[in-house]
Amino acid sequence: MKRRKFIKNTSLSGLSLVTANAFAKSGIMQDNNLNKIVKPIVVATWRVPNATKKAWEILQDGGSSLDAVEQGCRIEEADINNTSVGKGGLPDRDGNVTLDACIMDKEGNYGSVVYLQDIVHPVSVARKVMENTPHVMLAGKGAKQFALSQGFKSENLLTESSKKAWEEWKKKSEYKPIINIENHDTIGMLALDKNGDLSGACTTSGLSYKMQGRVGDSPIIGSGLFVDNEVGAATATGMGEEVLKTVGSFLIVELMRQGKTPQQACKEAVMRIVKKSGNRYKDFQVGFIALNKQGEIGSYCIHEWFNYQVYAKDENKNYKSDFYHKP
Ligand code: SD4
């Protein structure tokens, strides 16, 4: 499904929209099912019910939040219809599919890969970086070499349809990243397991038709993802350059540490980006989700139609995020 259509479709989801609007008005997640301490729980950016379902099954079985977020993200990485993640992800302007991902556990350990090519599951490579190397981040050729050494298979990630889309884009070849809201659906996933431990992961093919070599916020600790098991976790989607400038996910976790709710913290992080951008925020999207130790969630974005998926209390639901720009 084309991103634009997808966004429009989400806008028409009747009942859930009514519920979501109620949340949007309050600015705080107030679903009666979710306002007590909730665990296990998993929350992810965008509409990814299959990914949260996978994570939920692991959490329900008593599995760790780390396994849950890794396995959940893998669902989207393998889905060739998701054009922003893993196989089927749109390439850079030269036709290379380059992937960024990271993962962070309850102890604050972190693993990340940037500019990884030909490997379907960068989130799992990131986990191997975390667990099997003395480093936290591997890039490009070295990341691929490491992945192969760990048993990952090399395969072409450019599908027929992503190749076609790239060829279509090349006709105009506007040599700047397209920064509208249609090309953002990185998956960022946060989970709290039955033990009350938090983990998070984030995986993306980055902005479509980016310059070759470009890396966004998603694999960068504190920007695309941050987890502090004493406090909470946060993850970002949207224009990575803007998230990087404010180290958005770390900021949200620190704000929660100071007593803000996940919702208040997400809003403040978005507002910082908006303020610093002058008028430019009108041209890009940024969205955050956050989850604290109590299982409370929050979400805020610049433009309408960012949504997020929550699996808690046996229900897998999608919510519309509250947003800043209300023209
Ligand atoms: C990036 N934040 O590479 C990512 C893009 C994104 O859905 O969120 N895409 O900047």
Describe the fold and architecture.
There is one protein chain. With 327 residues, this protein is α+β, with helices and mostly antiparallel strands. The protein has a single domain (6-320), classed as (Glycosyl)asparaginase (Glutamine Phosphoribosylpyrophosphate, subunit 1, domain 1). Helices cover 35% and strands 22% of the residues. It has 10 helices and 13 strands. A hairpin with a 5-residue loop joins β5 (187-192) and β6. α3 runs antiparallel to α4, α4 (65-78) packs antiparallel against α5 (122-132) and α9 (248-257) packs across α10 (262-276). The longest helix has 15 residues, at 262-276. It is globular and about 50 Å long. Residues 1-34 have low confidence and may be disordered. N-hydroxy-L-asparagine (SD4) binds at residues 84, 184-186, 204, 206-207, 216-218, 237-238, 240.
